[in-house]
Amino acid sequence: MLTAKEIMSTNVVSVTPDTSLKELAAKFVASNVSNMPVLDNAGKLVGVISETDLIEQQKPLHIPTVMALFDGVFYLDSEKQFRKEVDRVTAQTVGELCQRNPVTCSPDATVGEIAGLMSQHKAHLIPVIEKGKLLGVVARLDLIKAFEV
To answer: How far apart are the C-alpha atoms of 12 and 58, rounded to whole Å?
Structure first.
């Protein structure tokens, strides 16, 4: 069975946590990829960012419903979720918007294992990591191409 090291893309387009969202948008357009790993200055994987993250950053903020009772105000929606939404709409950099601690695989992961990870975690990109170093990425299209073999 094919493994990650046999199907992964090694010419990886990545960004850093300090990359502005405007720069990110330009990079998405120029590279024609829809997901990118986020690497720190040492080249360590810190997250993954997608076109969907950038699009969702633009959707309107949902103001939670509150109820006043005995001089107190109670959120009927999750206050934690509201804080998360505020962080999303106010994000200015990739580091503020990216998905931290992404699902990864080893170079020896099989196509079936990678498909399982993508399905279970709703991931479109799986970084391939060995000894803490990014070797490449497996995108959904890489998996589909593997089915042709």
So the answer is: 26
